[in-house]
Structures are given as structure tokens and as C-alpha cells.
Amino acid sequence: MKGKLLVVDDERNILRVISATLKKEGYEVEVARTGEEALDKFSTNHADLVVTDFKLPGMSGVDLLSSIKSISPDVPVIMLTAYGTIERVVEAMKRGAFNYLTKPVNPDELVAVVKEAMEKYRLIRENLALKNQLKERYSFNNIIGKSQAMQEVFNLIEVVSKSNSNVLVTGECGTGKELAARAIHYASSRSNRPFIPIDCAAIPEELLESELFGHEKGSFTGAFDRKVGQVELASGGTLFLDEVGDLYKSLQKKLLRFLQEREILRVGGKDRIKVDVRIIAATNKNLRDDVDNGRFREDLFYRLNVVGIHIPPLRERKEDIPLLANHFLEKFNRRNNKSIKGFSSDVIAIFLEHRWPGNVRELENAIERAVVLCPIDTITLNYLPGHLKQLKEKEDACDEFNLTEVEKRLLLKVLKKTSWNQTKAAEILGITRRQLRTKMKNLRLLPNIRQRSSSK
Ligand SMILES: Nc1ncnc2c1ncn2[C@@H]1O[C@H](COP(=O)(O)OP(=O)(O)OP(=O)(O)O)[C@@H](O)[C@H]1O
Ligand SMILES: [Mg+2]
Fold this sequence. Notes:
Layout: E1 4-8, H1 12-24, E2 28-32, H2 35-44, E3 49-53, H3 61-71, E4 77-81, H4 86-94, E5 99-102, H5 107-136, E6 139-140, E7 143-144, H6 148-161, E8 167-170, H7 177-187, E9 195-199, H8 205-213, E10 214-215, E11 227-228, H9 230-233, E12 238-242, H10 249-261, E13 263-265, E14 272-274, E15 278-283, H11 287-292, H12 298-304, E16 307-310, H13 321-336, E17 342-343, H14 345-353, H15 359-373, E18 378-379, H16 386-399, H17 403-417, H18 422-429, H19 433-442, H20 449-454
The protein binds adenosine-5'-triphosphate and magnesium ion (MG).
The site of adenosine-5'-triphosphate has 17 residues, from β7, α7, α13 and α15.
């Protein structure tokens, strides 16, 4: 069923024609002959859309419109008028009518307007549902996720934020590792002290030590002044060591020493300084592998990974995609002063199908681009970046294969898999060996000599 409609008119014939037209389109249709009856039916038995005549005995169409809007402001109401007096129409539109049609009603026009209104109503309802979900429980310090995996991440963040343990956040690029680190910091008692991120992969080896631990004046060429390092600056707060898997061996040792003793030594300095910072590290590598092949110190790995939080790639938690998409739509609507309402259903389908190698960041970028480019109130395929659109084209291209082509591909695939063993291939395909041979002959799939020998 496409949705439930309520049609109101005092003329029996008109009611019959309109409901027949709409039923043929797959809608469930209820009818009423007065405004009072319509209101009664609407309050007990909600409808997704109302079509009503202006002129009704008793309560007028416009009053019915107002009453419906006060019960359900989002339900579209379409007005029918025999004499298109402009004042009436303007009044109805002011009170929130979706559109109006003049009698006698043209069935095609009616169907088109109803369809348009239902699509708009669907978007509004979907957005509302998503917004409520976001408000309820699927958001934790700006991190969005309703999947089981993300709910577990939220729980872990909450638990570790109450402690001072070191945390290692792992996950592919763009999965939200830094966001999780910030959430831990801001949920902790350190939240009014600094959160300082350091990208271990971006700073050259010779500078990183002084960046982390600081240096004394004259400790090396170019050290004109004393510099306080980031570890010290983060005192009382949290130091976020991003891309920790890329930390140079020499610094791995120094970091380990700091973690053990909680004291730093500035480059060129003599005195050890006590510093209280919480360390959260992140990596998109498999650090355990790096430990196994000697690239990362095992003792440091265990020190950092007191609590491990793994954020799964987006393709493994597709149920988060609609929520995230809506979250980013609102974010970029706000930023660009726009009010785009939602995504067309084929866009959502592509979002759900894409593998998102760049994870949430890739989705965020795609939506930012679409919001900037899209001049209408629904984001359609046209506004997706090329590589996402191609997904759809590839699919469409598949539809163009004829059956023979598909059969040929399938046979080849199975034959290759079985090293051209026809008995095995026939078994996999669920046909007899004889049928397989006939198909191969018709499709001119001839095993070469080597393949024939292996099929014995
Ligand atoms: N669950 C989420 N909810 C809302 N926004 C998210 C979520 N996950 C990621 N983002 C957003 O995606 C972008 C990338 O997130 P972030 O920088 O935390 O990823 P990362 O794992 O640190 O990536 P990289 O490995 O590339 O450094 C950010 O703009 C972030 O706000
Ligand atoms: Mg990051």
C-alpha cells in the first residue's frame, strides 16, 4: 500500500471518480461527505493526505483544512474548487494547503499532485524520525551511530572517560578516531584542561622530540629560546598521539620512558619534570603486526593499549549511514544557509551500497559537495561525485547483458574454479554433466588441451 488518503466531497459522483482514480494508483482511500465526518475519521484513523472540496455543507473546506493542520501540521491537504476564485485559493494556501485543483478534476493532474505531496510528506516524516533518533540515543558527544558496534564504542568511551588509563583507538582512515579521542577527553574530569593532538607522521624525526618534550635554549642549532613541549602544555589534560604507528624507533623508546615514569626531559635539559597527562593514541595500522615484525616496540604497544577501542569501517555498519547522512545534511545546510530537505531514494540506495573506502569522512565530503551544488530541495543522483554515480551506471550496464552473456560468464567462472573439471562444475551449477557439455558447445566454451587433461 502506497499510503492512506481521505477524500472529502458532498457529491457522491465526484467521490466515486476520485477514489477510483486513486485506488487504481495503489492508495488506500477513505471517503467522507461532510467536514465533520472527515474530521471524525481523521482523528480516529489517521490519513497520510487529505483531498477536500472547498464547499461543503456545514463546516467549510478551509475550516477542515485548519482543523487538520492543528492535529497534524505535516499532513498535506489538497483543495478542490469549482469556481477558482483567487481569494479563496490564497486563503487556503496561507492556511497551509499543499495545492489546489479546479473541478472537473483531471485524473492525471490529481495523481501527479498527490504523488508530489506524498513524496514531500515522506521526506518530512523520515527527517523527523531521524532527528528524534539522533536526539534520543544515537548521538554521543557529536558521534553518531545506532549500530551495535557504535553503541559499544559509546559505552567504552563512557567507561574509560572516568579513568586515566591510556587508550589506543584503532580503525581505518576516516572512521572517527580523533572524534572518539575528543569525546573521551570532553567526558572526562580533564575536560577544562587542554586536548592537544600531535600527528606523529607529519613531523620530521629531528623535530618531533623537541615538539613533544620541549628543549632548552641553545640545546641545538636553531634553539634560540627555551621551548615548552606539547606534553607539558597538555598538563592536566589529554595528549592525542595520532598515527602513533608511524612513530620513529628512537622516539618510541623516549615515549615509553615517559609513560613509565611520567616525567619528561626537555632536549638539552638536565631536570626531569613531572607531568600529569592522559595519553590517547590512534592508528590506522595493525600495530600487532608491526610488533610481530619488529617495527613497533612490544612494551610500548602494551603501555598504550591498556584499553583498546576499535571503530569498524562504515561498510560494516551500514545502518549508521542514513543517520550520518542526515546529520551532515543539517550541518552543511546550516553552514551554507540552505534548507535542503533530504535525499532521493536512489541516492540513499547508492549510499547503502558503496564501500566507502574513506569511511565517514568520504560520506561527509560527498554530502558537503552535494549541498553546495544542489539548487533544489532534494539531493538527487546528479549531485553525487562521479565515482559514486558510476556505481549506478555499472549496475545499469549489467542489465544490458543478455541471458546468453550472463550464462557464458557464469559457466566460465565455475569452470575456472574447478580447473575445468566438468563433473564438479555441473554439480555446482545444479545440472547434469551432459547438459553442461551441451551448453559449453553452444556457447563455444572449449577447454584447451591442458584443461582437458585436468578434467579427467
Ligand atoms: N560517528 C561519527 N559521527 C559524526 N561524525 C563523524 C563520525 N565519524 C567520523 N565523523 C566525521 O568524519 C570526519 C573524520 O573523522 P576523524 O578525523 O575523527 O577520523 P580519523 O579516524 O581520525 O581519520 P584519519 O585516520 O584519516 O585521521 C570528521 O569530520 C568527523 O567529524
Ligand atoms: Mg585522524
